[in-house]
Amino acid sequence: MTPAFARVSLAEPGDYFALMKPRVMSLVVFTALTGLAIAPGPINPVLALASLLAIAVGAGASGAFNMAADADIDAVMARTRNRPIPAGRVTREEALAFATPLAIGSVAVLGVVANWLAAGLLAFTIFFYAVIYTQWLKRSTPQNIVIGGAAGAFPPMIGEAAMSGHIGAAGIVLFLIIFLWTPPHFWALALVKSDDYARAGVPMMPNVAGEASTRAQILLYTLVLVPFALAPYELGFAGLSYLAVALVSGLGMIWCAWRVYRDRDGEAARKSAWRLFGFSIVYLFLLFAALLAEQLAAPTMRLLGLA
Fold first, then answer.
1. How confident is the model at residue 3 (pLDDT cuts 50, 70, 90)?
2. Is-contact 107 123, C-beta < 8 A?
3. Does the pTM of the predicted model rise above 0.85?
């Protein structure tokens, strides 16, 4: 006999997939793939695929842990109130029960198929995002995105470690590119959604330091990021095509950040912030796509005697 207090789940498979934050997960897999490609030595395609699947599942577990912890915040923000937990389709307990085996399994699989350095990095990334960022930094400091951005920057290092068994200069550089990219990307969104964050009690930079300070910091981070993004070429693990992409897209990134700094009132300010938020995604994709394309093309170029 079914107890009177038993709850009939309203969740569909798509709700559990949504818990994994698929858009974030796709970015994690893409940057991890680039880290995997820059690793020295030959790449075993079976090992590479298994490693990427483990990293993807680990990223999905992080997203589910994040949604379980942030359900109270998500419920009062227009951007997130229809997520599975605040919408009532999935409970926090169900989300945690879903995320926990995914996290443990992804770390274990990566350790077995690749190595335990990569697995340890994945475990730390899950913990950093689910606990340090979600449950502490996000709710306590306007530097939440700056420090917490490390969680999203680890995948290239994990990918490199999975293939090579160590972390090299290339993986560290890619980590730093994502780390420097994160504040202007998310603070642009925070400028547009500052009222949402204020209702939720999240101390985002515009709500604590003010919009003028946030705009100045967006420009400053961008001016540091764009020259630093040339480091792969300077260090010799990227070629001229990457350099061209980094220069052209970097100028676009600076222009967008300058418009955010300059346009401070009304609809123009809102449009400038949205433009930077959208272009920053394109910018990061172009950087990693150019680097990945060069790495994948290198064997063919050597075979043809062109490299």
1. very low
2. yes
3. yes
